[in-house]
Amino acid sequence: MSAIATRERAKLDRIVADFPILAKPTSRGKRLVYLDSAASSQKPRAVIDALVHYYENDNANIHRGVYELAARATEAFEAARAKVARFVNAAESAEIIWTRNTTESINLVSFSWGLQNLGPGDAILTTQLEHHSNLVPWQLLAAKTGAQLRFIPADDTGNLILDGLDALLDGVKLVALTHISNTLGSIAPLEAIVPRAHAAGALVLLDAAQSVPHMPVDVQALDVDFLAASGHKMCGPTGVGFLYGKRALLEAMPPFLTGGDMIKRVSYETTSFNELPWKFEAGTSNVADAIALGTAVDYLTEVGLDWVREHDIALTAYALERLRTLEPRGLALYGPPRAQDRGGVISFNFADVHAHDLASLLDLEGVCVRAGHHCTMPLMDKMGWPATARASFYLYNTEEDIDALVAAIEKAATVFKVA
Amino acid sequence: MDDFYKEYILDHYRNPRNFGHLEHPTTKAEDLNPLCGDTITMELAVDDAGKVSDVKFSGRGCAISQASASMLTESIKGLSLEEVAKLSPDAVLEKVGIGISPTRMKCALLGLKVLKSAALGEIASWPDETR
Question: Is B4–A364 a contact, with Cβ atoms under 8 angstroms apart?
Answer without folding.
Answer: yes
